[in-house]
Amino acid sequence: LCAWFHDAIYVPGLDNNEKASQQLWISFCEDAAGRIDPELRDDVSTIILATENHVSSRTAYPKGQYPTLNAFLDLDLLVLASPATRYQEYADGIRHEYEPVVGGPSVFAEQRSKFLSSVCSGDKAMFALCGPDAETRARNNMEMEFKLLQQQASH
């Protein structure tokens, strides 16, 4: 249910997609007229909202306290730890999706660079359960993308 609903509402550039997706989940539960366990409803709501900021959510819900949430967050970010060619396909998709929304290639490069820099400069782990190899691959991929964006900006 988390996988189905966490990006049920997704509009590029909108900053409340997670909240809107969570509200859709709650409406679904209400429409189910008591057939969804309240604990399940609350757990799915928590996980949907946690996808807004994975690192902060990991701080709020440590690995041992909420393993389902941490497993889902790992799965949601796993593309970042893909082999370099697959990550590049992902990064190209992000660029094609967001360039028109933010105002073109130069604005996208600037905003994406800031995002990548902030994620890579932090010492917080992105993955709770996938281990250090996934963390290293993800950081390497994002650093490579950051360098490419910087090269493109200088031309």
Automatic annotation (TrEMBL):
Xref: PANTHER family: HD PHOSPHOHYDROLASE FAMILY PROTEIN-RELATED (PTHR21174:SF0), PTHR21174
Organism of derivation: Perkinsus olseni (Perkinsus atlanticus)
Protein name: Uncharacterized protein
SUPFAM superfamilies hit by this protein: HD-domain/PDEase-like
